[in-house]
Amino acid sequence: MKFNKICVLGLGYIGLPTAATFAAHGIKVTGVDVNPLVIQTLKRGELHIHEPGLRQVVEQALQSGNLTVSSQPEEADAFLIAVPTPFYEDKFAEYEGRRYKLADMSAVIAATKAILPHLRKGNLVILESTSPPRTTLDLVRPILERSTLKAGSDFYLCYSPERVLPGQILRELVENARVIGGVTPESARAGHDLYATFVKGQIVETDATTSEMVKLMENTTRDVNIAIANEFARLAEKFGVDVWEAIRLANLHPRIDILNPGPGVGGHCISVDPWFFVETAPELTPLIYNARKVNDEQPRFVVSRVQEALGSLKDRRVAALGLAYKPDVDDLRESPAVEVVHLLQEQGAKVKAWEPFKPHAVLKGIHISQTLEDAIWQADTLLLLVRHAEFTRFDPVEIVAKTPARIAIDTVNGWDRDAWQRAGFQVHRLGDKKSSIASR
Ligand code: SAJ
Q: pTM score, two decimals?
């Protein structure tokens, strides 16, 4: 099948790079977003999100005329839905004492409805947003069939999950394997033809619900694996073991690959997607549910460790280093580091945060310093919350000259304990009671 023009609905972290990449490969793309600020920003040639390399690709796509942006979809050969699927903050359900969150599918519903007036025979519609199993069949298909066209025979319908890693989106869009789930084999084939425009990785055709499940299985596996690493950190502390060393040694086993403990799981994917399984099958998902609980409780655990290290948190002056949800990105959404800061403040600590990827960010209730120096010059404790590469390169001898702090708490194994101790810091590391015992 040949595609001359497509509409991408949702110009966020997935939709915008995808739209720009299609445009760079000669397809006419209308990028659609319901947020007028996004459209205005892009029309000015600016970007509302940060992703390495994205500015250049979007600028070129706009200048070439292949990418235009609009608040409304229009007729096209294919429609690609890449809108957010968060969960409701205020709606819960419960199964046998397990309270779980519910997916907010309103953006998918609205985007699908927006396509309806423009849907023509022979079109292809693809849902990319991470969704509960059967969304394509039971939610998207009935809406589109209000057009009186039939999915699978009059138009093609697919689910194809985005699987790109924030920070590496442009490369992974092209190189990652792509799973295309069609409501019919012909739909999957049409989806294959579209992504073949730029995907260099393997393109695999399957059915829609399998591909929805594949996506959720990937992120749920990662969540469960991080939860066990976090639990190992707690166990290691109980037994006076350094969890980082223990993980390194366990990973020498050819079939073991334990992930890293840390202050918790953030972002808008891994901390969200497992709930889609729990919501649709609470009776089958006690492990997935409990892994989510472990990771959600991790910021509180980290704060209890900080409190233990400092005695009391009241009026302690803490420099929180890093607010992003993970290393080397500027994304603060669902960030465990932000939650740690809030919890510390609740217990009376005076926190100044420093986030090198977003020094001008404004977060309600958090003092964000515009320079590292400002964050640390009056601190009594340095708290490393994100393993940004630049933090791992800190020279403790230089840092000690800029701060009165003599306590360094490392929640991500980003600092060389011995070097920091030699520079004069008392070092505490998550999952490692050995260090705090040694330094006392
Ligand atoms: N984290 C740990 N320990 C680790 C690894 C990660 O605590 O060993 C934390 C991170 O700090 C972060 C969170 O987990 O807070 C999630 O980070 P991540 O790098 O694991 O994943 P995301 O959310 O940035 O991107 C994931 C990716 N999924 C998988 O790796 C299976 C990506 O490929 C998906 O496209 C993306 O979710 C998505 O959009 O669904």
A: 0.94
